[in-house]
Amino acid sequence: MTPSITPDTSVFNKERHIKYWLRCLKTFLPTAYTSSDSNRVSLAYFTLSALDLLGALRLHTTALERAQYADWIYHCQHPSGGFRGFTGTDVGALRDAGNAHWDPANLPAT
Predict the structure, then answer these.
(1) Region of 92 on the Ramachandran plot (φ > 0 left; ψ -120 to 50 alpha; else beta)
(2) Is 57 exposed, middle or buried (0-12, 13-18, 19+ CB in 10 A)?
(3) Fewest CB atoms within 10 Å of the CB: 3, 20, 72, 94?
(4) What pLDDT tens digit does each residue of the chain (110 aa) get?
(5) What is the secondary structure of 1-62 as a DSSP string?
(6) What long-range pairs does 42-45 form, CB within 8 A, spacing at least 24?
């Protein structure tokens, strides 16, 4: 006896996806992501990319917001190259050889 094959009835709900990614971008991240604070740059990348792929980034954000997102990403750029995961490890002018290990660039953020 052969197993019955059910047709795929899943539907891509674009508007629901847009709503989810906008929530991630403009309000709070879902609870499962809150422990990933040190990977904010990666989360921002996936959020902004998803909205762009869905054709919603320019429709649901202003030019000023997009410029602020870019500025924040550049603020996370590490002086030695690459990017920090978030701005919390940036010690600014207090950075020296003794505390540089607390302010690393990391691969997921780069």
Answers:
(1) left
(2) buried
(3) 3
(4) 667 777 777 889 999 999 999 999 998 878 887 777 778 888 899 999 999 999 999 999 999 999 999 999 898 888 888 888 877 777 777 778 887 777 777 766 65
(5) -PPP-PPP-----HHHHHHHHHHHHHS---GGGGGGGGGHHHHHHHHHHHHHHTT-HHHHS-
(6) 42/85, 42/108, 42/109, 44/69, 44/72, 44/73
